[in-house]
């Protein structure tokens, strides 16, 4: 693969001292004791599974639990500690499953509740915990509560579980607020009464098919705590909390101030949210073994962000600042410093992630002129150099895996998959695309099903095609092809995760920056040093006794541009 050699040492840089890595059998034994470590989450490697696109077990073109269960050995051999499975519940799929109709049932497209229980058990037997998504800000418009609210009419107790409003103006014809949806457009939809006349409006911070629930209502609080218990009873090790900072709304429904102060936004980061998560933490802590709460918290204010990580609230939250930064040494170091400084006072570990099911894949993003990420900036036809992007993505993998805290990997990043940016317009499904009136390409490009084997689509994903088409040029990116190539990105990930597991200094713990030129990042984790060259010229390596791993071969003993290395330093 172009720019894809994972060097273990050039001729003039052969390892002089190397600790033996654990064999796969030894790793399995260590992984198979998951309940013995109450702090497992502080340095865990967690693999995000988007089940619709992971593996298809029944040949209908959609990934499912049967496919995921069949690929658990692949995840064990990759070396992950846990999987995070995005919503697998009954859903009309108006937003890829984040519009939940029933939190206690598996969508038939994915399988059954019994299969989910088997997956949790089988994964645990391989030393892999399971984290699931809970979506507490909204439900599907097909949820029994919302259907009851529509049937009951204005002023009913059923409507009090949501945010219904008669509307402004003489006849309620004016929208209640000018709040802007995260999916663009307004946040209110007007209902139609049984006689065909316009009715009340209801709030949805996302798509109209996702009505927001009212977290000041005791039924909502009780229901979601019961949902947590339902899944903890079935053995899940944690809950990823979708849109975690959006649940609580100002009951007065004011407009968003031009510059809201801390806690002043009418529907983001309200102070009352912390009572919700204290209640959830009490539920989690009532179970044996550590059941973790992981928040999706998009906040610029790092002090406010850290409040969610106090000892009686969430265990961890996603660090999106690092993911959104450009491929620039100063910017990345600043983000690392800010992140660690924010987590320090509350004693929580940081999380590191390069992508997810919402974000342009690193291989594509890092090959662009603007290597940062912002939802508002996504456009069709943005050029990218995939060779440059792959080289940087491989280096970024070593960088993130060496940072203190836990590591999240999105399915397919270990294969170096690019974003699929030429999907036929008629096949796009993401509401972000449609609500932008076709300007935003949406998120389908990072959700294309994985290639497992073979020379043509569906590349072993299943026997019956795939719900989104895979590119014709993915034969070299399949798992089977990369397993046969020791310089592949898959082998790079397997090597770095094996080293991370074997090195006591990696994962949770301290780090120390090392003085370097401006375009180079270097830091120490015990006697292991991570060096990343983000400059244009090859860089000298710090004094070391062993080159453990590099994302590309060294050049005459120097670290090439857009390359990272892990080194052992003298004792």
From TrEMBL:
Record region (Disordered): 1-34
Gene3D superfamilies, per database record: Glycosidases (3.20.20.80), Oligo-1,6-glucosidase, Domain 2 (3.90.400.10)
Keyword presence, ATP-binding: no
Residues in the signal sequence: none
A Pfam family hit: Alpha-amylase
Source domain of life: Bacteria
InterPro entries tied to this protein: DUF3459 (IPR022567), GH (IPR017853), GH13_cat_dom (IPR006047), O16G_dom_2 (IPR045857)
Keyword Cell membrane attributed: no
Boundaries of every Glycosyl hydrolase family 13 catalytic domain copy: 48-447
Assigned keywords, A-Z: Hydrolase
GO BP annotation list: oligosaccharide catabolic process
Alphabetical list of PANTHER family matching this protein: ALPHA-AMYLASE FAMILY MEMBER, NEUTRAL AND BASIC AMINO ACID TRANSPORT PROTEIN RBAT
Similarity remark: Belongs to the glycosyl hydrolase 13 family.
Protein name: Glycoside hydrolase family 13 protein
Source organism of this protein record: Cellulomonas humilata
């Amino acid at each position: 693969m172009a720019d894809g050699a994972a060097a273990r040492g050039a001729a003039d840089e052969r390892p002089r001292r190397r600790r033996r890595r654990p064999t796969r059998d030894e790793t399995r034994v260590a992984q198979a004791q998951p309940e013995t470590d109450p702090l497992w989450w502080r340095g865990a490697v967690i693999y995000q599974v988007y089940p619709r696109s992971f593996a298809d077990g029944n040949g209908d073109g959609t990934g499912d639990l049967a496919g995921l269960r069949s690929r658990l050995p692949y995840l064990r051999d990759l070396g992950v500690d846990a999987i995070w499975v995005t919503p697998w519940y009954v859903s009309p799929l108006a937003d890829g499953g984040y519009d939940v109709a029933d939190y206690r049932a598996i969508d038939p497209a994915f399988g059954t509740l019994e299969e989910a229980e088997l997956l949790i058990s089988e994964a645990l037997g391989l030393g892999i915990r399971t984290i699931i998504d809970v979506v507490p800000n909204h439900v599907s418009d097909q949820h029994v509560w919302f259907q009851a609210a529509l049937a009951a009419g204005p002023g009913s107790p059923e409507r009090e579980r949501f945010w219904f409003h008669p509307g402004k103006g003489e006849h309620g014809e004016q929208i209640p607020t000018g709040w802007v949806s995260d999916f663009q457009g307004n946040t209110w939809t007007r209902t139609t009464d049984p006689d065909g006349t316009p009715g009340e409006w209801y709030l949805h911070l996302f798509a109209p098919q996702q009505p927001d629930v009212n977290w000041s209502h005791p039924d909502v609080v009780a229901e979601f705590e019961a949902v947590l218990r339902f899944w903890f009873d079935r053995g899940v090790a944690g809950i990823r909390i979708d849109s975690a900072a959006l649940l609580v709304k100002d009951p007065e429904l004011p407009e968003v101030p031009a510059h809201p102060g801390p806690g002043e936004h009418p529907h983001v980061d309200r102070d009352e949210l912390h009572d919700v998560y204290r209640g959830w933490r009490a539920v989690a802590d009532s179970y044996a073994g550590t059941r973790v709460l992981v928040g999706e918290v998009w906040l610029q204010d790092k002090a406010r962000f850290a409040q969610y990580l106090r000892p009686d609230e969430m265990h961890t939250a996603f660090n999106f600042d690092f993911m959104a930064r450009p491929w620039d040494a100063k910017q990345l170091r600043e983000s690392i410093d800010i992140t660690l400084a924010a987590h320090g006072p509350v004693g929580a570990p940081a999380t590191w992630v390069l992508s997810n099911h919402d974000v342009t894949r690193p291989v594509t993003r890092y090959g662009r002129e603007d290597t940062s990420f912002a939802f508002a900036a996504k456009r069709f036809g943005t050029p990218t150099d995939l060779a440059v992007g792959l080289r940087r993505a491989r280096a970024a993998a070593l960088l993130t895996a060496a940072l203190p805290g836990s590591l999240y990997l999105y399915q397919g990043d270990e294969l170096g998959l690019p974003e699929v940016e030429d999907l036929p317009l008629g096949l796009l499904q993401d509401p972000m695309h449609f609500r932008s009136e076709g300007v935003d390409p949406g998120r389908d490009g990072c959700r294309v099903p994985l290639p497992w084997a073979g020379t043509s689509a569906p590349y072993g994903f299943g026997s019956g095609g795939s719900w989104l088409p895979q590119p014709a040029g993915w034969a070299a990116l399949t798992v089977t092809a990369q397993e046969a190539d020791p310089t592949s990105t898959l082998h790079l990930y397997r090597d770095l995760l094996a080293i991370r597991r074997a090195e006591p200094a990696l994962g949770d713990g301290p780090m120390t920056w090392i003085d370097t030129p401006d375009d180079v990042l270097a830091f120490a984790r015990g006697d292991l040093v991570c060096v990343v060259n983000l400059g244009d010229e090859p860089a000298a390596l710090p004094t070391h006794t062993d080159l453990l791993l590099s994302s590309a071969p060294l050049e005459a003993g120097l670290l090439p541009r857009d390359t990272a290395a892990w080194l052992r330093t003298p004792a």
